[in-house]
């Protein structure tokens, strides 16, 4: 499956050249000339990686990165590369401190850009694999979800959860205290191409709450957005 890249740059020549290079390397590329356009694109479909210039008309790349990092996952945790002519040390430090994962200055080698993209996507995948294999504890250890044994125990007693309830709980616990939108839950648990209404999620959340007993109240409804696991 092709990785999807969102590329934002107001220099049309560079935008086209980079897009053509990435597409030749088997990436799917969405291009935007402003951060505002990119925000609209992000809400339609989350890419696998973002590349953005700093000097953009309207909202600049730094502010765009801050907006992205303040969003719930998966958008808020996407790999982010700055690609810019601004090569001062202060600018680089600012970009990385705001949440950028890499910083490449123009002029640049297209082959080096591709290599950095591959490295960043590999690192992100490894981190995801490690996370997926780890067991999860909650409520001060009173609730345990074992990924390898595919079981959940509350106060030492194994709970009878359906496969979807298990996946829902795993997602909620991995993202503790974060608000997960219904769309994000749908894509994470049912898949991006699953065609159904978000009422499916509400029904499964209700069932999961019942299965968790007294701990079901930890699943908090965030009006108009979705759900989150309240660890407090």
Report on this structure.
- It is built from eight helices and twelve strands.
- With 232 residues, it is α/β, with parallel strands linked by helices.
- The strands form three sheets. A five-stranded parallel β-sheet has the order 2-1-3-4-5, sandwiched between helices. A four-stranded antiparallel β-sheet has the order 6-7-8-9, covered by helices on one side.
- Strand 8 (151-154) and strand 9 (157-158) form a beta hairpin.
- Helix 6 (163-174) packs across helix 7.
- The protein starts with a strand and ends with a strand.
Tell me the CATH topology of the largest domain.
Answer: Rossmann fold
Shape designation: elongated
What share of residues is helical?
A: 40-55%
- Distance between the first and last residues' Cα: 39 Å
Rg, Å, rounded: 20 Å
> How would you spell out the order of helices and strands?
EHEHEHEHEHEEEEHEHHEE
Total of domains? 2
Supply the CATH architecture of the largest domain: 3-Layer(aba) Sandwich
Q: What is the total tally of β strands?
A: 12
Compact summary:
The protein is 43% helix and 20% strand.
Q: Keywords, please?
A:
alpha/beta, Rossmann fold, 12 strands, 5-stranded parallel beta sheet, 8 helices, elongated
SSE layout and pairing:
Layout: E1 4-8, H1 12-24, E2 28-32, H2 35-44, E3 49-52, H3 61-69, E4 80-84, H4 89-97, E5 102-105, H5 110-133, E6 136-138, E7 143-146, E8 151-154, E9 157-158, H6 163-174, E10 180-181, H7 182-190, H8 199-212, E11 219-222, E12 226-229
Parallel strand pairs: 1-2, 1-3, 3-4, 4-5
Antiparallel strand pairs: 6-7, 7-8, 8-9, 10-12, 11-12
Helix pairs in contact: 6-7, 6-8
